[in-house]
Design goal:
Number of helices of chain B: 6
Radius of gyration of chain A: 12 Å
Order of helices and strands of chain A: EHEHEHEEH
CATH superfamily of chain A: Glutaredoxin
Shape of chain A: globular
Distance between the termini of chain B: 15 Å
Strand order of the largest sheet of chain A: 1-3-2-4-5
Strand content of chain A: 25-35%
Structural class of chain A: alpha/beta
Number of strands of chain A: 5
CATH class of chain A: Alpha Beta
CATH class of the largest domain in chain B: Alpha Beta
Number of domains of chain A: 1
Oligomer: heterodimer
Structural class of chain B: alpha/beta
CATH topology of the largest domain in chain B: FAD/NAD(P)-binding domain
Strand content of chain B: 25-35%
Radius of gyration of chain B: 19 Å
Shape of chain B: globular
Number of helices of chain A: 4
Largest interface: A-B, 29 and 32 residues
CATH topology of chain A: Glutaredoxin
Largest sheet of chain A: 5 strands, mixed
CATH architecture of chain A: 3-Layer(aba) Sandwich
Largest sheet of chain B: 7 strands, mixed
Number of strands of chain B: 17
CATH architecture of the largest domain in chain B: 3-Layer(bba) Sandwich
Distance between the termini of chain A: 26 Å
Chain lengths: 103, 283
């Protein structure tokens, strides 16, 4: 089970290292497709922090990052957003984006 | 989990399904209501061998029946996104998710070029899936570009979620099934306008302020369905084995190019299915 971020711990979580944040909602079909993939990727990439934001619970975070379609994945490196992808990206594609922020 | 999921229940998809079943593969055909198929509306089909004077509807009904009889599972729905899981695929249609080891795309022709601004603002206000993104537009304005038979119902669903919906269609008359609370504008020239995200939709030159634009067509463009897929001249690029640029994904019929004929689609469906079966045997 990946950690769900809130406004209180978001900034602190993304501040260091490589972080992937998945913005999702329970009612979104493509989000449900991505969920098990992210769980798997988290196990396979233990040096990268992978977590989630529920847009229904955290509308402020969704607004801050202009989330207009879900799933949206944000990729951070030491607090800087370096990549953003919208839609149900496949496992190989997410992995290559993770590899890019890890460097 | 199916061995093979086939997107599209036209001649290519149904032919692929029959071959996949003949090879003992569990097979799902996910397709729109057949009455929305361009073939269904063809009064007479003159050049399909063996069935003279048949209408498009007759042929589709016969082929559908035949595919069902050999054990293909027919599912009504429109797949709006598809994902590579690393060892198979997940497909999302409405609120349903299906899993398959291999996929054959046989979705026919999209029949429309993207609207100006559509590709640019995809994910930045433009969406193809009301059930996926609707809630993000709660208490906001969103326009629905209705290009499919079920678009009015989708617009009604958005309205019920609390979205301030504007509906635009081609016909002068508003669709009967559209909720009376939703304003209807008939427009031929549509453009999506914005800066970093969508700010308006232009209908025959008249701008209407909006945060979102839902474009609902009968057929989802292959690149919107699966961004990894290579195209050539507006069609899905395949080799002689109907293999696309994505591993485990095959394509057949009108979506891979002209001539847009049943006989060609049926042959390609067969080849695509055999290639998918071969792929599964080596997996």
């Amino acid at each position: 089970m990946l950690k769900h971020l809130t406004t209180t711990d978001f900034d602190q979580t993304i501040a260091n290292g490589a972080v992937l944040v998945d913005f999702f909602a329970d009612w979104c079909g493509p989000c449900r497709m991505v969920a098990p993939i992210l769980e798997k990727l988290a196990t396979e990439n233990s040096d990268v922090t992978i977590c989630k934001v529920n847009v229904d619970d955290e509308p402020e975070l969704a607004r801050r990052y202009g989330i207009m379609s879900i799933p949206t994945m944000l990729f951070f490196k030491d607090g800087q957003m370096v990549d953003k992808s919208v839609g149900a990206l496949g496992k190989p594609a997410i992995q290559s984006k993770i590899d890019a922020i890890r460097q | 989990m199916y061995d093979i999921a086939i997107l599209g229940g036209g001649p290519a998809g149904l032919s692929a399904a029959m071959t996949a079943r003949a090879r003992g593969k569990s097979t799902a055909v996910i397709s729109n209501d057949p009455a929305q198929s361009p073939l269904w509306k063809a009064d007479k089909v003159d050049n399909y061998p063996g069935v003279p004077n048949a209408s498009g509807k007759d042929l589709l009904e016969l082929m559908t029946k035949q595919a069902k009889e050999v054990g293909a599972e027919l599912i009504q729905g429109r797949v709006t996104s598809m994902m590579d899981t690393g060892d198979g695929f997940m497909l999302n249609a409405g609120t349903e998710i299906y899993e398959a080891s291999a996929v054959i795309i046989a979705t026919g022709v999209v029949g429309a070029k993207p609207l100006p601004g559509e590709t640019e603002y995809l994910g930045k206000g433009v969406s193809y899936c009301a059930t996926c993104d609707g809630m993000l537009y709660k208490s906001k304005k969103a326009a629905v570009v209705g290009r499919s038979a079920d678009a009015p119902e989708e617009a009604n669903a958005l309205k019920e979620m609390g979205v301030d919906v504007l509906y635009t269609g081609i016909s002068k008359k508003r669709p009967q099934s559209l909720s009376e609370e939703i304003p209807y504008i008939s427009a031929k020239k549509i453009e999506v306008v914005g800066d970093s995200t969508v700010t308006a939709i232009s209908l025959d030159g008249e701008p209407h302020e909006t945060s979102g634009v839902f474009i609902l067509r009968e057929t989802v463009a292959p690149t919107a369905l699966f961004p990894d897929i290579a195209m050539k001249g507006g069609y899905i690029k395949v080799d002689k084995a109907m293999k696309t640029s994505a591993k485990g994904v095959y394509a057949a019929g009108d979506c891979i190019g002209k001539p847009l004929q049943i006989a060609k689609a049926v042959g390609e469906g067969l080849i695509a299915a055999l290639s998918a079966v071969d792929y599964l045997s080596k997996k």
